[in-house]
Amino acid sequence: MLSLPKLKYSLNALMPHISEETLNFHYNKHHAGYVNKLNGLIKGTPFENKALIDIMKESSGAIFNNAAQIWNHTFYWDSMGPNCGGEPFGEIKEKIQEDFGSFSKFKDDFSNILCGHFGSGWGWLALNNNKKLVILQTHDANNPIKENSGIPILTCDIWEHAYYIDYRNDRASYVKAWWNLINWNFKMSLACQKNYL
Amino acid sequence: MLSRAVCGTGRQLAPALGYLGSRQKHSLPDLPYDYGALEPHINAEIMQLHHCKHHAAYVNNLNVTEEKYQEALAKGDVTAQIALQPALKFNGGGHINHSIFWTNLSPNGGGEPKGLIPLLGIDVWEHAYYLQYKNARPDYLKAIWNIINWENVTERYMACKK
């Protein structure tokens, strides 16, 4: 039986950028919903006692969709936090400068990808197989681990449920606000990525 | 008499789709009913956003893309033509699907189809229901049966059969 990972901050901690109402629905309904659904789907199957990451890597269809959405959302919550945002610092700052030229170039490119993505999905900063930072976009529940396109460093949820209550159709404003929430502290430590792989 | 919901300045009910091969710009069709006409099943706020923002964006983006495509054709720039295909598909598809969807709904709809098997599209993008139903898509899908315009759906089927 899988359980919903605890949120590391309170439901109103990301205001005003993401409202308490959004976080309540997003975490307690959507994220929790994926956990409940997956538990139901894997019961009595070989996936029943596997770790989430293995279920995600080995499955397809509804089992994959729910498993990956659990993983993606946990990563998304950890990508953000109160008293966060601003510019990166330390190791990740240097790597962004090295691979994108500047933080502002990276920010523009990432924002354009997030705003231009069609339909449900996710935007990612990832370390690719050549150890370069790249911006990726995936559809629906997919992620760079499943697509073997890189190690995720940062993610932004661009399913409409992530922003519709607060921003309606105005995804660009949501993306602009999201930059105020990035937990660069989490992203600095590539060692902590091992917990997710 | 039912008033028709319009965005911005009032427009005549234009053909929803420009005829293929013509350079006529696509336009956002007016809804055949008011924004509030489908309440309580789909509320007015959703209908206005869905029509004036989401559908309108597909129409605008389709027109922009088609202009660029005409230029690429004129220049014989095949690379550009290929690069524009996804945008034509996304925005053209979005425009067509929503144009059909509005006519599939009616404040006097619901009940059961009479006679023939209907053709019907139901929008399950989150923007179609989120403000009112949040994550509870099943509740939206239950409510929408109260506003399906079966006459329209049957008309479409008859037109397709010819």
Overview of this protein structure:
The complex is a heterodimer of chains A (197) and B (162). Chain A is mainly alpha-helical and 197 residues long. Helices cover 48% and strands 11% of the residues of chain A. Chain A has a 3-stranded antiparallel beta sheet. In chain A, a hairpin with a 5-residue loop joins strand 1 (121-127) and strand 2 (133-139). In chain A, helix 1 runs antiparallel to helix 3 (61-79) and helix 2 (52-58) packs across helix 3. Chain A is globular. Chain A starts with 19 loop residues before the first helix and ends in a 9-residue tail after the last helix. Chain B has 5 helices and no strands. Residues 9-21 of chain B have low confidence and may be disordered. The A-B interface holds A 25, 29-30, 33, 118-120, 159-161, 164-165, 168-169 and B 49, 53-54, 57, 86, 90, 125-127, 130-131, 134-135. Chain A: It catalyses: 2 superoxide + 2 H(+) = H2O2 + O2. Chain A: GO terms for molecular function: metal ion binding; superoxide dismutase activity. Chain A: Residues 90-186 form the Manganese/iron superoxide dismutase C-terminal domain. Chain A: Keywords: Iron, Manganese, Metal-binding, Nitration, Oxidoreductase. Chain A: Its EC number is 1.15.1.1.
